[in-house]
Amino acid sequence: MDLTYRIARVRRRAVATTRRPLFREGLRESLPMSIGIAAWGLVAGVAMAKSGLGIPLAILMSLLVSAGSSQVAALPLIASDAPMWVVWATVACINLRFLVFSYQYRPYFAHLPRRRRVTLSYFMGDTIFAVFLRRFPDPRPEPGQVDYFWGAALVNWGSWQIAVITGIVAGAAIPTEWGIGFAGTMALLALTCGQLRSRSTWIAAFMAASAAVAAYSLPLRMNIVVAIAAAVAVGVLAQHTRTQAASR
């Protein structure tokens, strides 16, 4: 009875959330990005299907990891029987960007209970981060921010998981000649360019791209980690410079 009551209470809260204006706004503003998310998710799903993991294990991996770059990077390591610590270390390094996202979200959600913050952290994504900061540029808590986040998360997580599972189940029937990977990459590139609104962000993006290309020969796709480190370093330096200029 207690479990039934809890399920009913969660359901009532979910229904009430979907009726709030900021939830619908977050959902609406994230919908255009679902095409790129789905394209990239389909690529990841097809790659997982052709890696020999098996459908149940591949779906479980998608639900647990829920990050395209790290999922794709882990597949060749798993297929080659690499040590488990190597797989874990590779996934952790590639997902370091979520640590940066968490730090950026802190001013907005630090007042929430830890359980809610942990739940929100699972649904963080690149597109959610982009639309959320565009909607709430000032780093301070405001009413409706959690509702907006859940609206964007519904589109991001739902589009990703549906596309990944579709790719896993129908992976053998999707030919590589379709160029799905290129479509997903271009969609994510368009999203990234839309967030370059200042000189510092352009410089950070240029440094990240240059570092990724320069370190392309590194094993385990470590060039992604190098690019993230370069972008973060430039961003920190730019923030420090602006702070010093403002204090003068």
Write a concise synopsis of the structure shown.
The protein is mostly helical. Helix content is 77%, strand content 0%.
Please characterize this protein's 3D structure.
The chain has 248 residues and is mainly alpha-helical. The chain folds into two domains: 21-195, no CATH class; 199-248, no CATH class. The chain is built from 13 helices and no strands. It has helices spanning 2-18, 21-30, 34-49, 55-65, 68-79, 84-94, 97-109, 114-122, 126-135, 145-169, 180-194, 199-214, 222-247. It is globular and about 55 Å long.
Kindly state the number of beta strands: 0
Tell me the series of helices and strands, N- to C-terminal: HHHHHHHHHHHHH
Specify the number of helices: 13
Number of domains: 2
Spans where pLDDT lies below 50 across 5 or more residues: none
Shape: globular
Query: What do the pLDDT scores average to?
Result: 80
Please describe the biggest sheet, giving its number of strands, its sense, and whether it closes into a barrel: none
- The share of residues in extended strands comes to under 5%
Q: Any idea what the radius of gyration is?
A: 19 Å
End-to-end Cα distance: 63 Å
Find the structural class using helix and strand composition.
mainly alpha
Estimate percent helicity. over 70%
